[in-house]
Amino acid sequence: MGHDTYNCNKGCPVEATLELIGGKWKGIILYHLLEKTYRFGELKKTMPGITQRMLTKQLRELESDGIINRKVYAEVPPKVEYSLTEIGESLRSVVMMMRDWGRKHFGM
Length: 108
What we know:
Elements: H1 13-21, H2 26-35, E1 38-39, H3 40-46, H4 52-64, E2 68-73, E3 79-84, H5 86-89, H6 92-106
Antiparallel strand pairs: 1-3, 2-3
């Protein structure tokens, strides 16, 4: 299957995928959530360069797109946990391939 199989002017699958998981932070968030369920503060600690506002925005977008679950516990203070949905879990091979490629090409 060649690159010209899909007409990227009319909804390229690569473009659609990058729209969902592209950008600086979404792939990193997904990488961490592949490991386990995280609370907001725990997830923020794994990404020291992200602001609270940006993490909130990225999590909301991933939730809206059906990639992650947001579970709120009726506690004081409220406890919120984030995990992958079935769709999010289906991205495991994509995220792991990006990890492996980065290790190979950047020696990480």
